[in-house]
């Protein structure tokens, strides 16, 4: 005996009346952290905010040098597929190291 999928759904009570409706919500626009609001940080804004919030950068450990940031950028590219141009790696490293590379005083 063959039972159609529609009959099974109806028998299980999964008719259109009981299917969940989609919900929409509005995410507030991202605010740019003060450390990344200067014009020379636009490269960071353009390359990093496509995958995560800019606030994420501000939560990284302070006092790490250029190699930490270079490795983090390369990890974003190789592991997570971030679309960062190879020519942007060093400028991004320089900006991030300047903003976040010094240990808090």
What is the topological layout?
Blueprint: H1 5-11, H2 42-48, H3 55-58, H4 66-78, H5 89-100
Helix pairs in contact: 4-5
Q: Give the overall pLDDT as a whole number.
A: 85
The major β-sheet equals:
none
**Global geometry:** elongated
Strand content: under 5%
Radius of gyration, rounded? 23 Å
Structural class: mainly alpha
Low-confidence stretches: none
Encode the helix/strand succession as letters: HHHHH
Helix content: 40-55%
**Alpha plus pi helix count:** 5
Tally of DSSP β-strands = 0
- Alpha-carbon distance between the two ends: 77 Å
Describe the structure.
The chain is mainly alpha-helical and 105 residues long. It is 41% helix and 0% strand. The chain has helices at 5-11, 42-48, 55-58, 66-78, 89-100. The radius of gyration is 23 Å and the shape is elongated. The mean pLDDT is 85.
Brief synopsis:
With 105 residues, the chain is an all-alpha fold. It has helices at residues 5-11, 42-48, 55-58, 66-78, 89-100. The protein is elongated and about 70 Å long.
Name its key features.
about 100 residues
């Amino acid at each position: 005996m063959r039972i159609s999928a529609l009959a099974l759904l109806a028998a299980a009570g999964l008719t259109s009346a009981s299917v969940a409706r989609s919900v929409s919500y509005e995410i507030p626009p991202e605010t740019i952290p003060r450390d990344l609001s200067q014009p020379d940080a636009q490269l960071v804004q353009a390359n990093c905010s496509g995958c995560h919030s800019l606030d994420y950068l501000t939560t990284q450990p302070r006092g790490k040098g250029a190699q930490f940031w270079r490795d983090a950028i390369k990890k974003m590219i190789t592991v997570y597929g971030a679309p960062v141009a190879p020519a942007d790696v060093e400028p991004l490293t320089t900006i991030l190291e300047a903003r976040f590379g010094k240990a808090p005083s």
